[in-house]
Amino acid sequence: MTATNPCRFCIGERGAGEDCCIDVFIILNPDEMDLFEKFPGFCVTKEKDGAVFYTKEGCPYLDKEKKCSIHDFKPLYCKFYPIFITGIPYTDDKCPAYQGLEYNLTSMVEKEIRNLQKRYPIYKKEWLWEDVERLFHQ
Questions:
Q1: Dihedral-angle region of residue 47 (phi above 0 means left; psi in -120 to 50 means alpha; beta otherwise)
Q2: 23 falls within a domain
Q3: Cis previous bond, 75, omega within 30
Q4: Among 36-45, 67-76, 115-124, which stretch is predicted with the lowest mean pLDDT?
Q5: What is the pTM of this model?
Q6: How many whole angstroms separate alpha carbon 34 and alpha carbon 12?
Q7: In a domain, 109, yes or no
Q8: How wide is the angle at C-alpha 117 spanned by C-alphas 92 and 24, nearest 5°?
Q9: What does the alpha-carbon distance between residue 21 and residue 40 come to, in Å, rounded to a whole number?
Q10: How far apart (Å, rounded) are the C-alpha atoms in residues 27 and 114?
Q11: Is 15 a domain residue?
Q12: Which domain range does residue 61 map to?
């Protein structure tokens, strides 16, 4: 997914993506939780199988050009974007890269996601914005 993810081609190169990675909601599996632990107050909830990272201030890993400074090491949730890998996989139709490149959910990608969901149960959950807002304000 890293090589095919359209985010690498979107921000700065086509004038798109100015709002990308600003209102950030990321599901972290247990192997990724340490990436965001140094940003206190951002982690909404931690569970034994992962965590939810949420902020409206922008991802702390955006550089001055609004590009991801950890692109090759970023969480799987980010690597799959504009496909959301939680619950039933679907695409974010507001993403400029998705619209421009017709990036879609193929059966091969869906199979890859199902394997991830078996390995990391946190990706099986249906995360809705209302849940995130509730957790964020607790």
A1: beta
A2: yes
A3: no
A4: 36-45
A5: 0.78
A6: 28
A7: yes
A8: 40
A9: 18
A10: 15
A11: yes
A12: 7-136
Q: Is 1 within the bounds of a domain? A: no
SS3 53: strand
The Cα–Cα gap between 135 and 43 comes to 10
- Please state, in angstroms and as integers, the Cα–Cα distance from residue 40 to each residue in 36, 55, 57, 62, following that order: 8, 11, 13, 17
Provide the token pair at 81. 């974007």
Mean pLDDT of 50-74: 84
pLDDT per position as a tens digit, 93-126: 777 666 655 556 788 888 999 999 999 999 998 8
Q: Where are the beta strands (DSSP E) in the chain?
A: 24-28, 43-47, 50-55, 83-84, 90-91
Phi first, then psi: give them for residue 121, nearest 5 degrees: -55, -25
